[in-house]
Amino acid sequence: MTSKINIPNIISFYRLVSFPFILVFALLGYENLFVVLLVINLITDILDGLIARILKQQTEFGARLDSIADIGTYILAIMGVFVFKWDDFAPHMLSFGTFLFLFLFSNLLSFLKFGRFPSLHLYSWKIGGYIQGAFFFVLFVFGFNIYFYYFMVLWGILSFIEHITIQLMLRKMRSNQKGLYWVIKNKN
């Protein structure tokens, strides 16, 4: 049995512990400090999964911990949008609202159906996380890019739809699924 105390889980735990501090910095309007710590969270989000695969320390506990930390990072990035970048996003609230609704619905559906947050880690979700992380990095460091924004939102919406579809198909939450194709293939 793999220990719950390992490098990837410590990194994910850092993201959980840092959440309230980064949130306070956002609410107090400390944009530079918020951005530095958010970027650290985005980088550690990439590192925890990469290290888990390299060291073969992937566990159900780690997948759940990472997913909860991911939700926290999403909340922080979205909070940053509303606090620091509202003027850039206001003209795009229909698309951003759809993106946010599907994100929230995919998490709420899992919580209601399975009694826990999702930890599917679909390929589309992982790629979407990289795209969204890169978008938020560019947004907070360089500024709003309309083309990157719509690419990020479209990918996210499609990924959330796949995520929701798989949750509706599954009888119990299973971590580390590849995608809809593989879920359907394994059902047959």
Explained architecture:
With 188 residues, this protein is mainly α. The protein has 2 domains: 1-84, no CATH class; 88-188, no CATH class. The protein has 8 helices and no strands. The chain has helices at 7-27, 31-54, 60-84, 86-89, 93-114, 123-141, 146-169, 180-187. 30% of the residues are buried.
Shape assignment: globular
Helix content: over 70%
Order of helices and strands: HHHHHHHH
The low-confidence parts are: none
First CA to last CA: what distance?
30 Å
Mean pLDDT: 92
Structural class by secondary-structure content? mainly alpha
What fraction of the residues are assigned to beta strands by DSSP?
A: under 5%
Count of DSSP helices? 8
Radius of gyration, Cα only, in angstroms?
17 Å
Count structural domains.
2
Instruction: Count all strands and give the number.
Output: 0
| Sheet having the most strands | none
Characteristic key phrases:
2 domains; 78% helix; 188 residues; mainly alpha; 8 helices
Short structural description:
The chain is an all-alpha fold.
List the helices and strands and how they pair.
Elements: H1 7-27, H2 31-54, H3 60-84, H4 86-89, H5 93-114, H6 123-141, H7 146-169, H8 180-187
